[in-house]
Model the fold of this input.
Amino acid sequence: MEIIRQYHAGTTDIADSILERALRIAPSSEKRSGDLPKLLRRFGNQNFTFAGMPFRHLREIFRVIKPRRGELFCDAGAGYGHVVFYGACVADCRFRAIEILPARCAAMSATARRLGRTDVEVIRGDALAQDYDDVSYLLLNNPFFPDMAQRFIEQLTLSRQRPLTVIAMHNIVDVLRNNAACTEIELSADIPNYCFGVFRLTTRRIRRRRLKPAATAPSPPE
Done:
């Protein structure tokens, strides 16, 4: 994985196709599936279309967030695993890929075996139904349409016991910017602001604790 580390540490661009081959990720051969209406009926208003993220964006993201040993980075709607396998080469933390489509999960599991990566966990399942309480960083590369994204963020604020850093891409960025539970973190990443944002999500329990008025001393007896 030396080519990935050199790319991450440097400034020279390398074609995404070369980096993809270095990570041993099979190119997507997906076509429009007749299963889409069935998926929408079963799982709601989610975005099942595969859209890979440019590696130059991944380089910027992992340079600015710098996850540490003991932390867990999760990609909800991971596709073929570009994010988690790139991250595993450049960051010393654990990774989890959540993907709803079986073919993509099988492809990621095969990639993990080819790379010998035991620090990447692949979970086949609905991102809305997962437990994220052990996650330190959550990447959302447009896995939901806006109404479902709002529901997802609300679930996170209700279920988590501690704050969470959310890396948002594309349409979901505005959803987080308009949510009172999310505070945007200003970072100098070379990614357009309209399609990228990093947010600190505060749980409802923590917000209530912060808003709780200080106790007052009892009045002395007259």
Summary: The domain at 2-26+50-208 is CATH 3.40.50.150 (Rossmann fold). The first helix runs from residue 2 to 9.
